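Notes from hallway chat w/ T.B., transcribed later so I don't forget. T.B. wanted the structure written out for a chain they're using in a teaching module, and asked if we could keep both sequence and structure tokens in one place. Agreed to drop them here.
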Amino acid sequence: MPDLSSCPGLNVQTDGAIAVIRLARPAKRNALSEDMVAGLSRAVSGLPAAIRAVVLHGEGDHFCAGLDLGEVDGEPDLAAAIHHSLGWHRAFQDIQFGRVPVISVLHGAVVGGGFELAAATHIRIAEQSAFFALPEGQRGIFLGGGGSVRIPRLIGTPLVQDMMLTGRTLSADEAKAAGACQYRVADGAGLALAMDLARKAAGIADMTRFAVIHALPRIAEADPHIGYLTEALMASAAQTMPEAKARVRDFLAKRAAKVSRPA
């Protein structure tokens, strides 16, 4: 695993093929320091080959209350602010377009930069206690961690405008209905579900995993004609892999489970 000894706000452990990354500043509601953002980038970029999925969650009562504003207090510096934002962009791109899927467990505050971080993950599980907010509008600032790109794609631009202009907060149920998360579970149940989903995602064939993480979101945003061509190329690449051929043979020989109705 990458060395994160210089980043006290993060803990990383492994469970088989899964890396569990914990935001570990509970006294600060896991507010993100610059070191933590850089550490997240190093953690997901430096995963050993044996790791095939990541679970991300926060210690204590909250997932993440966003940027630690104490780090940006002082005389404004335009150039420094731009580089600060671009650093967050790079770190969260490493999560969204990394080698493995990242599943986030959201509880308590999912606020500002915490919401931006969650939006960069691939699967989001909200516990009942989770609440989502974008208080930047009330504080005279603006989204800086890629949220103005990712969050409207999840919940729509009008709702993002509402949250930023009025300070509206979404409950876990409202966030699920709006598309901010794919799952809503009881308090304390998120981590177990995340580990179960991570084990399933870890079993996906390598080329299929690459296509889902890297090609699918780009296809969804591309001109349809480019999307169709990209899909054809990725489908052809995936199905010619030896692993795919073996899995198809297992299915035809009735050695693989069929799709069934959810319980």
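Follow-up for T.B.: The first helix runs from residue 34 to 45. Might be a good example for the class.
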